[in-house]
Amino acid sequence: MSAPTSIERVLDAARARGLKVRQLHADDYMMQCPVHEPDGNPSVHVTYRPGEACTVVCDQHDATNRHLTLEILQALKLDWPDLYDNPRSRDAARKAYSRLWPRLDRGERRALAGTPEGKAVEAAPFTLPTAYVPDAKRGTLSEAFRTTCARLGVNPAYGPLRAVCPVCGEADALRILYAPLQQATLFHCRSCGGNADYAARLASALQLDAACVVSNGMEVMAYDEVRGVVYEYADGLRVSRSPAKQIRQHGTTRGRHPLWLAEQVAEYARAGSPVFVVEGEKDAASLWACGYAATTAAGGGGNLARTLDPASVRAVLSGATVVAVVDRDETGCKWRSQVAALLHPAVRSLTFVQATGTAHDTTDAIMANTPGEWFELLPAVRTVPPASAAPVADIPDEDADNDGMDVERFERFWLEAPYLTRIRDAARQSLAAPWGVFMALLARVATVLPPHVVVPAFVGAAPASLNVFVALVGPSGKGKGACESVAGALLPDIRDAVTSQPGSGEGLVTMFCERVADESGGGDGDGPRTILHCTNRRALLSVPEVSTLGAVMGRQGSTLAGELTKAWSGEPLGSRTKYAAGTFRAPRYGYRLCLITGVQEGNAGVLFNEADTGLPQRFLWAGTQDDERHAIDYEQWGPGGVMPLADASRFPEDLRSIQSLYRQGDRWDMIGHGDGYPLTQVRYPEAARRDTFEERRRNLVGQAGDSLDAHGNLVRLKVAALLPWLDPDRAAPLTVTDDDWRLSGEVLAYSQAVRRRCMEAERARRVETAADYARLKKAASREAEDEQDELRERTADRVRRFLAKHPGESFAARDIRNAHITASLKPYVYEALEAMEREKPPRVECVEEAALPGASKWRAV
């Protein structure tokens, strides 16, 4: 007999305690809470996950409190290991279960961190606004509803009604609500509830068609017709829902979809009325029936980020006051985080509420709770840290993947601005990784900007260059080229930048200048005088494989690594030689050089080996593979041309006086000390200045962190300066806003996470290499010992056979050694003679011992 699964253990323990268990779907149950007794309506959500071979238990009294789960288990006489099908220790089970817990954003984790263990946070009541949608815009009351009202003896009207329950006979116990958009009448009796048994008895009492009646355990729904209802979206999507709760999509099913009832909701949002966002069309229809504008997205709560068109959010909810109703289940936690990320950038205010009491969702709250007391407030959600926050998470991330990558955090990044969403969509529709495309696009933006556009001298006395290096990390053939091609389509014109691969450190400078004859006369030695002439201002080096870069850097005497670090900082390239005619130098602020290279995790050591020169610290790191949870499906795929996002004509023009800069070699040596070649400095907000100061001060007083983050703040300053050029609506792209600075922190955090993953892979590879070497060395040692033992045995056999041919005769050891003994065995002759003498019985004896081993005489016994 096979062992019970975790879900069977939990349900058996609940039933043994006498708790009511109700099945919602396959592997999905609600049960009464053994901690909050009496629990008239099951409030504990129990979900079996076959993929993880475990069961998740979530108490809806406090869906964010994992300690409450432990109390429930203890009440059922279970423990953490019982939630897993396969045996594991208590500590391992507890840690594994924490990774499966519904995802919370950082703000919620901070709030929970200050809450004593096991104590639920008391929710504040939510004041429901006065209904504002007039009856004429709520829809038409159906004949089926009017007939039902007549049988109940009440006048048909909009909003919740009260009547005598025809099943229990209690006065005003039955609440009725007709939802025109749902084409159904809702019933709930405060005495009988709304379970399946009550639904059957109510249908009989009111002469309702049983095929049109359905119960979800909380309320009864009677559809006007057996076919149910069809919800229609503006883009042609049609969602049908039958009394059996079969939900199907028709029409325009591919791609992202607008909000439901977008035009109607937008009307009230613009008027300043609070509008509701809920998890499904049924709940939205219930709110409309009560006089409130409500909307939802197609595809279910857990798919919001994948199916909702962000453009619809901006068009409908921009500047709106929004109330989001979160369902009491695991999907609701995920939905809440996605709503926060999608709506925060667009709306004026966003309030999260949840159904009070034991109600699960919006419709439950309307039907089962007292009017005006439907919802309670939830804590506000923080989607991203403030501008002054450190870019890397300061709290351990329970929703991070096993490799430390906080996928949900970095997925929310794309919803922060329309241009970011467009980059993400262009990447995924082209089957490329969004972050890889984004980083490659930053390199192209930096390439287009003239070299006289700089970062102010926050540290030191010289403004910094905007040169950018990008490492695209992924297996060979897994998307590096695709990322670059999509980035090229988003910004096609890079102003004739050189795109060749670097051949040597000395060759970098020749990409930008050459020596030409000086028309003013004079000469260098016996030849004509030559001067430096700028032939090209910019280069975007594309190296598909970092191993190619490593091969060049690994050559004896190679200066490539050092020249690249100088180029990233914008320092002068090249060096002075004995003869002026052979000297090539690209002056500071006289060139733009950006680099994109493909990195396989196994080859990342090429860059990390140059950590002492500061090379890997200067890179922006991005993956070339998308996360499975957010990659599009075939139905969403619409391949086609990628429209340009940025136009090179918006960027500043190059300065013609650059030739004078090259001839003089430095701005200080120019007439007017560079007045003829003015620098354009990017303007930064106060938050950037303060963060830069604090970071530099920590370095100055010896409080710096990871050495690989040594250039992190300058990388962030560069990213912040490049972001405005991606926004086609930005009027002043040379000015960095607080939002730009905040977003640059997210970019840096993502880059550091990818680099950390590469570093860990490189360390693991080195450990494995060292282990392999040690194993080989140990095996070689054993093999050598075995071989020596074999040689000793063969030598002893040869010596014995030689002496056996000459019985009674004695021979000097050296003579035995030189008598027909193979050369490979000669070193072991003396050792073999002594070993055979020690044997019992001995096979040879020493008849005359001498000072030297070779002079001793031996004979057979």
Can you walk through the features of this model?
The chain is an alpha+beta fold. The chain has five domains: 96 residues, no CATH class; 89 residues, no CATH class; 124 residues, Dna Topoisomerase Vi A Subunit, Chain: A, domain 2; 330 residues, 3-Layer(aba) Sandwich (Rossmann fold), CATH 3.40.50; 84 residues. Helix content is 35%, strand content 16%. It has a five-stranded antiparallel sheet, with helices on both faces. A hairpin with a 2-residue loop joins strand 21 and strand 22. The longest helix is centred in the C-terminal third of the chain and has 67 residues. The protein is flat. The two termini are 72 Å apart. About 5% of the residues have low confidence.
Q: Keyphrases for this structure?
A:
single chain; 861 residues; alpha+beta; Dna Topoisomerase Vi A Subunit, Chain: A, domain 2; 5 domains; five-stranded antiparallel beta sheet; five-stranded mixed beta sheet; 26 helices; 16% strand; coiled coil
What's the topology here?
Elements: H1 6-16, E1 21-25, E2 28-31, E3 44-49, E4 54-59, H2 66-75, H3 90-100, H4 106-113, H5 143-152, E5 161-163, E6 174-179, E7 184-189, H6 196-205, E8 213-215, E9 220-223, E10 229-232, E11 237-241, E12 247-251, H7 262-270, E13 275-277, H8 281-289, E14 294-295, H9 304-307, H10 310-317, E15 321-326, H11 330-343, E16 349-355, H12 362-368, E17 375-377, H13 407-412, H14 418-429, H15 434-448, E18 453-454, E19 469-473, H16 480-490, H17 505-509, E20 513-517, E21 523-524, E22 527-528, E23 530-534, E24 538-543, H18 546-553, H19 560-569, E25 573-575, E26 584-586, E27 592-599, H20 605-608, E28 619-623, H21 658-664, E29 680-681, H22 686-700, H23 712-722, H24 738-804, E30 811-812, H25 813-818, H26 829-838, E31 844-848, E32 857-860
Parallel strand pairs: 13-14, 13-15, 15-16, 18-29, 19-27, 19-28, 24-27
Antiparallel strand pairs: 1-2, 2-3, 3-4, 5-6, 6-7, 7-9, 8-9, 10-11, 11-12, 16-17, 20-23, 21-22, 25-26, 30-32, 31-32
Keywords: Coiled coil
Coiled coil: 770-797
